[in-house]
């Protein structure tokens, strides 16, 4: 089954053709990162307009790269939630028109479900059940993946997402947007251990996380040093910041896996590319005898192939939608798409 898939939830326009949920025939991505870097973050209106400009040509590229014609497409999958609402609407509206024109089913896909499914592309042997640590610019979730379309949130952030926290910390350290890779590169230049950054504990739900206090602490350190004319050890602060984020994520992921009875842990999302978090996950899983799947770098960020992969399993589960399907800025990952 060949699925033409679209992703436009933030600042990447993506179109891909995926066969049977596991084989990537093409994966075309147009990034807007350079443009949004001028503003230090994503400007929603600009993102939406750039999606409109890019998506038609990108679709043609995806079809050409895959070596398939329109008549060979069996279904269309698209991110319908969550994300910047204007951006999501662009991809969804275009996908609707394609599905209608081709006379094929429309498959709505939750963006974070797509990030989890990116691992299916890299690891053909991977099958549910497993525990997923989903960490991106807009989402931070601990998800019990009971089956391909049956998922339950065990823990989440109470405020900022881990990826957003990286971007804000990078900005006060004078690093470019998006901040994940520049922060990682800077952190590699120091052993850290210089700055005492806060760790949080959510009393009523120990698997939940909070990153706003950590973000504020980094901002205050940078501003105080500037006001006092003191030199900030930027590399050490980046290293200590990454260690603090990892300390929020990794122990909770291991505890969630224990509570769910899972011996397989999967990481997903852009922040899963961070070297400190990857190393800490590897060490924790090795220590506790948990099998770890870390997505290759190419599958950490937003892309259309991950939407096509998850779309295949949504289709098998009967999760298709009509032209009345709407876009959502927020949506629980456990909600069945299209309902």
Characterise the protein shown here.
The protein is an alpha/beta fold. The protein folds into two domains: 2-116 and 302-316, ATPase, nucleotide binding domain (Nucleotidyltransferase, domain 5, 2-Layer Sandwich); 128-298, 2-Layer Sandwich (Nucleotidyltransferase, domain 5), CATH 3.30.420. Helices cover 44% and strands 19% of the residues. The chain contains ten helices and ten strands. The chain has helices spanning 33-37, 44-66, 85-102, 111-122, 162-172, 180-187, 212-228, 234-260, 275-288, 304-316; strands at 2-7, 12-19, 23-31, 75-81, 106-110, 130-135, 140-147, 150-156, 264-268, 291-293. The chain has a five-stranded mixed beta sheet, with helices on both faces. It has a five-stranded mixed beta sheet with strand order 8-7-6-9-10, with helices on both faces. β6 (130-135) and β7 (140-147) form a beta hairpin. The chain starts with a strand and ends in a 23-residue tail after the last helix.
Chain-wise SSE layout:
Layout: E1 2-7, E2 12-19, E3 23-31, H1 33-37, H2 44-66, E4 75-81, H3 85-102, E5 106-110, H4 111-122, E6 130-135, E7 140-147, E8 150-156, H5 162-172, H6 180-187, H7 212-228, H8 234-260, E9 264-268, H9 275-288, E10 291-293, H10 304-316
Parallel strand pairs: 1-4, 4-5, 6-9, 9-10
Antiparallel strand pairs: 1-2, 2-3, 6-7, 7-8
Number of domains: 2
Average residue-wise pLDDT: 94
Fraction of residues in β-strands: 15-25%
Helical run tally: 10
The number of strands is: 10
Q: Specify the CATH architecture of the largest domain.
A: 2-Layer Sandwich
Largest sheet, order of strands side by side?
3-2-1-4-5
**Structural class from helices and strands?**
alpha/beta
Low-confidence stretches: none
CATH superfamily of the largest domain: ATPase, nucleotide binding domain
User: Which class of the largest domain in CATH terms?
Assistant: Alpha Beta
What spatial form do the alpha-carbon principal axes imply?
A: globular
Main β-sheet, in a few words?
5 strands, mixed
Q: How many whole angstroms does the radius of gyration measure?
A: 20 Å
Find the CATH topology of the largest domain.
Nucleotidyltransferase, domain 5
